[in-house]
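G., the chain you wanted modeled:
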Amino acid sequence: MTAKRLGKGISAIIPEYPLGMELVYKVAEIELENIRKNPNQPRENFNEEAMAELKQSIREKGIIQPITVRQIDGGFELIAGERRLIASRELGLKTIPSYILPVKSDAEMVELALIENLQREDLNPVEEAKAYQILYNTFGLSHEEIAKKVSKERSTITNSLRLLNLPDPILKDLREAKLSAGHARPIISLDSEKQQINLWRRIKRDGLSVRDVESLVKKAESTKNKLPEKRNQVKTPFIKDLEERLMHIVGSRVRIRGSENKGNIEIEFYSKEDLNRLLEIFRSIEDLSN
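Predicted structure as tokens:
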């Protein structure tokens, strides 16, 4: 049986998913004890209230949409539907309806799981950004390719990835829905972590709107731009474009100081993990050149 529409989520990506074969699926009632959790599940947090509502819905109506799994030695591995799986286990159910997809490699399984969650819009801004980061770093998808798979603009992918450069306290608030992505995005433009933290604290203290935050950041940038610049510090359109392209490649802020003939390139990182991520990118580039 060939794949038919499954509703929002997997159905939106199955037609383009590169399995290298005609996609065939079947639905089966699988014992919960035979389903292994997806080790690369992009979701880090589950809203307790939403989980309670889901369990109540399952009590009243059962599982309306099957979870998605792949067959492995000794059982099955979850691709998508972790909330439904957890809720079913907590309710003491013995089996759960499941789509069984012929996904053979770990790479295909991880990519499908990430895109399914992104399509369903079940992720907080940090989880979403980390999902894009895995697709970019692990699977080598460009921002344009990721955007096509999840039906979003390329700039949306780039801006989402930039959120990961924010300090940990701000990321924590994003995870816990105490700060919106709209508030966080302008903060990224500030040069120092101290400035970013100070503005974040002011947002929390004064209840600033997104427009207020954008206005404050523009004011800070305007003040900075009024400082005298040396002649060779004025960036040409070529340099500005190159900075943007390099930022897309490494996923971090990039500054080019100097001219097109001589200068230096600065790439920011914000943790040991972030530095290791950059080193892996450079190693991959080196391998390609050998």
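The chain has four domains: 10-119, 124-164, 166-225, 231-289.

Shout if anything looks off.
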